[in-house]
């Protein structure tokens, strides 16, 4: 997985003009699509120019960076936001909604399909995960169904919902589509497939150890569990997860396994 994402990110940077403000970065994908990101949350924010006006996806660079986001948007297109979309309802993706609504942007919470954007709903990270495909740039915003900076969080949809969400994403665009995660470097479909593979490997290993009677603390120190977890550490962060987050990931995975088994 690491090889796929690093390759994709390198090509992406070479073919894009990148501007940096003090707190908001900009990556140009095409004349009609830019990806913005703030340092506080690292949320990937979509800025899409359509014939209906500017569309903003997941406008949350950080609570103290909304004015900078405003300035950055105007430096690119110099016109107001017409529509606001969210990949899901968590505050690190929706926190800037009110700011842009006050400026006249319309928050769209129902089905949304323009000539330029296709919208589908899945259930994986949350009970309603919105996926947006921008045809002109062949780019797919997938929210936290996929994250290249963190471990998978498939808690609302469980194993079945996660797999169905990945399949839905794979059915959009083509083999060359850019896949934009909720956080982390943009990737591609081979990366997404590797992410799914590693997620299933993780689930199966946790299930195996749990069924053998191991407790969470014992599972945490298992060598194979550590190796699988490291597959999600694309940026080679030392350590990838704090102990508290590592423990929570295992506990949540066990909870999902138990729910699946009780159905």
Automatic annotation (TrEMBL):
It is an enzyme of class 3 (hydrolase). The keyword Signal applies. Residues 42-183 form the Metallo-beta-lactamase domain. Residues 1-21 form the signal peptide. InterPro entries: Beta-lactamase_class-B_CS, Metallo-B-lactamas, NDM-1-like, RibonucZ/Hydroxyglut_hydro. Its main location: periplasm. It is found in: Periplasm. It catalyses: a beta-lactam + H2O = a substituted beta-amino acid. Its EC number is 3.5.2.6. Its cofactor is Zn(2+). Keywords: Antibiotic resistance, Hydrolase, Metal-binding, Periplasm, Signal, Zinc. Belongs to the metallo-beta-lactamase superfamily. Class-B beta-lactamase family. This is beta-lactamase. It comes from Microbulbifer variabilis.
């Amino acid at each position: 997985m690491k090889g796929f994402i690093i390759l994709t990110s390198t090509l992406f940077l070479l073919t894009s003009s990148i501007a940096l403000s003090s707190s908001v970065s900009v990556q140009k994908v095409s004349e009609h699509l830019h990806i913005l990101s703030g340092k506080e949350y690292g949320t990937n924010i979509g800025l899409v120019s359509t014939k209906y006006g500017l569309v903003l996806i997941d406008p949350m660079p950080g609570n103290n960076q909304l004015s900078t986001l405003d300035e950055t948007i105007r430096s690119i297109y110099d016109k107001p936001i017409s529509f606001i979309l969210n990949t899901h309802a968590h505050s690190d993706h929706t926190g800037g909604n009110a700011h842009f609504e006050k400026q006249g942007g319309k928050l769209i919470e129902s089905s949304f399909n323009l000539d330029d954007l296709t919208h589908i709903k899945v259930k994986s990270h949350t009970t309603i995960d919105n996926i947006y495909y921008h045809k002109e740039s062949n780019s797919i915003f997938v929210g936290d169904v996929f994250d290249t900076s963190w471990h998978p969080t498939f808690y609302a949809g469980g194993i079945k919902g996660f797999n169905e969400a990945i399949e839905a994403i794979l059915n959009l665009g083509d083999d060359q589509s850019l896949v934009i995660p909720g956080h982390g470097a943009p990737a591609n479909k081979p990366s997404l497939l590797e992410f799914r593979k590693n997620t299933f490997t993780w689930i199966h290993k946790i299930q195996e150890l749990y069924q053998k009677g191991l407790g969470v603390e014992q599972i945490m120190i298992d060598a194979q569990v550590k190796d699988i977890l490291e597959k999600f550490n694309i940026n080679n962060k030392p350590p990838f997860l704090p102990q508290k987050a590592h423990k929570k990931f295992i506990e949540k995975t066990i909870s999902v396994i138990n729910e699946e088994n009780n159905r």
